[in-house]
Specification:
Structural class: alpha/beta
Strand order of the largest sheet: 1-3-2-4-9-6-10
Number of helices: 8
Mean pLDDT: 86
Radius of gyration: 18 Å
Low-confidence stretches: 1-20
Distance between the termini: 27 Å
Order of helices and strands: EEHEHHEEHEEEEHHEEHEH
Length: 264
């Protein structure tokens, strides 16, 4: 079955001069209220990547149309991708490594640096935040839910071929609780690898240490409580970086539209 997803491939040659390998699959969440956030996240990844990557939006309506997602939306689901994110290994064909990331990210570094951290000993890898949100709402007034391992699932490197991840079928994702999925309860603790926090830098929670700027400055900024695309969060920390990326993306899109279709 061909999944109804649009792939964008950046076929740059790796810095080591070797021919490009299979593109690294990056599944990005998509919410109809945050289309621009998705586009800017995608742009920031492709712009800086020195390896071939495939950016794939996870769109809930498409998954429903294909019979892959059918659960009713619960009262604590603040986005359209609260549960669809866990279909990543399935969508990757339970093969190789792939990444899931929320659309409210801005990448400031080469995705190659992140893939260099991959360790086949683990079923998945993520930033292991100890995070308790200060606000009771986020984004455009959505309720802020507090639970253990919060934000661990917002950026995950999945070892899609790992036997333990084969349980993440549409049937399980559509039936299991949020606690089971977001806390990675299908895994043992030692099967979850750790990634430095700079790859999921939570605005308003993490901080840059001027004594160790190189080790603490974000490589991927996560506007978890709300980003500049929402009026209430226009002045958030690192908001100007997102706006600059957005303006660059819009200029490039305008140039592409003005040029018209390319001859192939």
């Amino acid at each position: 079955m061909v999944l109804p997803i649009i792939a964008d491939i950046n076929r740059t040659t790796p810095s080591n001069g070797n021919p490009p390998s299979e593109p690294f699959k990056i599944f990005v969440s998509y919410d109809s209220r945050e289309d621009l956030a998705f586009e800017v996240c995608r742009h920031s990844i492709l712009k800086r990547s020195s390896i071939p990557v495939e950016v794939i939006p996870i769109r809930q309506p498409d998954l429903r149309r294909d019979g892959l997602y059918w659960r009713d939306r619960g009262p604590t689901e603040s986005t359209e991708f609260s549960f669809t994110r866990f279909l990543t290994p399935f969508l990757a064909g339970f093969s190789g490594w792939a990444m899931f990331v929320d659309c409210d990210f801005l990448y400031m570094a080469d995705i190659r640096e992140l893939t260099d951290l991959i360790d086949d000993r683990f079923a998945l890898m993520c930033v292991k935040h100890e995070y308790a949100p200060k606000e009771s709402t986020k984004m455009d007034g959505a309720v802020q839910t507090v639970y253990p391992r919060k934000n661990w699932s917002s950026m995950v490197l999945y070892n899609c071929g790992h036997p333990k991840n084969r349980v993440l079928t549409p049937e399980l994702v559509n039936s299991q609780t949020g606690a089971y999925l977001h806390r990675f309860m299908w895994l043992e603790d030692e099967e979850i690898g750790e990634v430095p926090f700079v790859w999921n830098y939570l605005v308003g929670h993490n901080h840059v240490d001027e004594r160790d700027r190189e080790g603490t400055f974000p490589k991927a900024i996560h506007y978890t409580e709300g980003g500049p695309w929402f009026e209430a969060w226009e002045d958030c920390e690192f908001g100007e970086m997102w706006v600059e990326e957005m303006e660059e993306y819009l200029k490039e899109r305008q140039k592409t539209s003005a040029a018209g279709p390319l001859d192939v």
